[in-house]
Amino acid sequence: MPGLTAYPTFPEDVPTAPLLIIDYALIKAGDEHEKDRLFQAAKDLGFWYLKNHGADEEVNSMFEFGMETMSLPLDEKMKFEQGDSGLSFGYKAAGMSAIDEKGTRDATEILNVAKDDALAWPAVARRTYPESVNACMTSTIRPFVCKAVEVNTTLINVLNDKLGLPEGTLAGLHRPEAFSADVARFIRTSSEAYAAVDAKLLILGHTDYGSLSFLHNRLGGLQVRMPVTDEWLYVKPLPGHAICNIGDGLTVFSAGILRSNIHRVVAPPGEQRTYERHSLVYFTRPEDAAVLRPIAESRIVADAIAKNPEKNWDTGTTAKDWVARRISSTRFNNFKSAEAWNAQARGTETDALFARSAVSAK
Ligand SMILES: O=C(O)CCC(=O)C(=O)O
Ligand SMILES: [Fe+2]
Q1: CATH assignment at residue 42
Q2: In total, how many domains does the chain have?
C-alpha cells in the first residue's frame, strides 16, 4: 500500500523532544490519572503523543488519498488555490508562502478540505475541490473528519473540566455543526525541495491558529521550540501515535494556562532526507463567530488573569478573523518588506503567548 511505505528509521543520535504519551483508551475510560497527565502535557509543552486513538484505518486511507490528489497536474490543483485573502480552504501551491524576512518562497504543498464541506457533502458549504477529492469525500475524508472531531472533542472536554469550566463550555465553542475554519490538511514536500529551500526551513516557526491539532507524521522534520531553553528539538514520529498540540484558541480561552507552543518543519533527519515528506493534520478551530477572549467563569482562569494583570488576553477578534489574518500574513503575495514582516502579528502574538505560558507552566 503506498500509504504504508517503509521509510528509513529516525536516526538514534538526533536529540528529540520529551513528549508525554497519553493513552486515549484510558481517557475514554475516564481514568483520572491519565486525564491529569493530559492536562499537564497541555500546560507544560502543549504537545503530546496520543496512542490508542483508533483512527489508524482512516489515517492510512487519508495518506493514500492525499498522495493521489497531490499527484494531479499542477494546473489542475491551481484551479483550487486558496488565494491571498486568508481563506483556509483549498490548495496551497509550493512557493505561495514566505518563510522568512527576506521573502523566501516556501517549497511545501498543502491541501485543506473544510470540515464544513466534508460534513455537508454532496452540498457545497465553503468551496469546491478537485474531482479526486469529491470522489473520496464519503469513503475517506468524512470518516477521518468524524474520527478526528470525536478524538479532539473528547480531549477538549477533559481540558474543559481540568480548567474548572462549566461542563461543555469549550465544546460549545467548537460545535461541529457550526461553521469554522476546521480543516483536514494533507502536506507534501518533495525531497528535491529540501535542498532548494534556503536554511532548509519547510514550514516556518508558528503556533497553530486554532485550538487543537491531531497530526500524523511518518518522517521526521517537525521540531518544537522547547520552553525555557529555546532549543529546537525534533519530534520523532512513533507508528500508530498521533501528535497532538494546543493552538492559540485554547491558549486565549484559558488565559495562557494551556500552551500554544511554537513549532516548525525542517528537512527530515539522516537517511530519511532522501524521501518525500507527507503529513496529515486535523485542525479543530473555534467556531467562526467565537470571540477569542479568556473564559473567566472559571476560578482557575480568573486566577491566571489576576496573576498577570498587565497581559490583555482579550484579542477582541473572532476566530474567523484571527485565522484569516494569520494565514494571509504568510502569503508571499502579501509580503511587503523585512520591517513589515518583523512587525506583524506572527512575532507579537506568538512571542507573547510563548513567554506568558512559559511562566504559567512552572
Ligand atoms: O508537517 C508537520 O509535521 C507539521 C505541520 C504543521 O505544523 C502545520 O501544518 O501547522
Ligand atoms: Fe503547525
Answers
A1: 2.60.120.330
A2: 1
